[in-house]
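Q: Sequence in, structure out?
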Amino acid sequence: MHELSLASDIIDTVKQTLSHEELPSLRKIVLEIGAYSGVVPDSLSFSFEAITAGTELAGAELEIINIPFRLKCNQCKTEAEPEYPIMLCENCGSSDTVVISGDELKFKEFKISESEE
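A: Exactly. Output:
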């Protein structure tokens, strides 16, 4: 996935979700990104900072929660967190596996500061 276009999509989603009044108060966007999603978190953070500079979202932090890659084998029922994202069971070698986690790419929350009056 191209991180610059993904950062742009994140900004579009934020603008569609929050009101115009809330945008300048946005302090943090929390994302869950899986190790198997194809996203490079550092590149995404850099891209996000670059395209929000000078906008109403400047200064908003992008917090990324890394979700590990996990598999479940349908043959031996083993659940594992392989070092490399290979779809083979480490226990029995079967390719009859399913991804339990690690392919996520989702918003977890927005943190907005309250205005001081």
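The mean pLDDT is 92.
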